[in-house]
């Protein structure tokens, strides 16, 4: 039990960067970006192929991040300059990335077993591995928080809130959208690179369903921890990723579920995360309405008695 929980926390931290990336497009830009299913694999593919060809792991990881930025920028260009619907632009880029990733890897799977990676020295010691991952994720989170408070970051946030208003103030919303989608996919690719190094392989199918995992983490985090400020929202995405992995690990301990039920479990978790807050809000409104009705009846009775 303890081992599975530790593993869940490790995976949650590794996927947290992906969750932050999805938060940028899903919450800040309100952009339905499906590129992440492809850019996640791109990150793992670039890191794996470079490491196996003798490049330093940190250089390979940085290149994976840059390739993710490029993939996101292309999606942004298709949407803003090509005037293609955002959802369709993401789908087209995701499809294109499948062939690109296969070109990068040269084969469906690349093994990193017995190869030096960023985690080679610490991956076997969870009590060191988890703090190192936590520091890395926290550093990226704080850098993103700082960026979102700069002029460009504020313009990015305003673009998602009200693009027409920010255009009237002279800001080029096309540029802010490209920056946001690019940064999102860069973080997703970075997560893919780290996952590939931790798991010991990169695979063509590793990115399937990534968008759902990211949305699950963001929604669960917001439902539990709230999202009133940028700092709180990005922290909620990180913690939501960890909570999601813990829930998934607990679900697998139920005899009814098998490891092959990952997608179904994910769907159930997302449905619960979406429905429960709505039900709670509806019940709260009904209680307030009932209380208000009782107050009005009492007030009406008091006036009748006085008359």
UniProtKB/TrEMBL annotation:
Transmembrane stretches, start-end: 12-29, 58-79, 86-106, 126-144, 178-196, 208-227, 234-252, 264-283
Database matches in InterPro entries: ABC_transp_permease
Stored Pfam families: BPD_transp_2
Principal subcellular localisation of the protein: membrane
UniProt topology in membrane: Multi-pass membrane protein
Subcellular location: Cell membrane
This protein's UniProt keywords: Cell membrane, Membrane, Transmembrane, Transmembrane helix
Domain of life (superkingdom): Bacteria
Protein name: ABC transporter permease
Gene source species: Paenibacillus lignilyticus
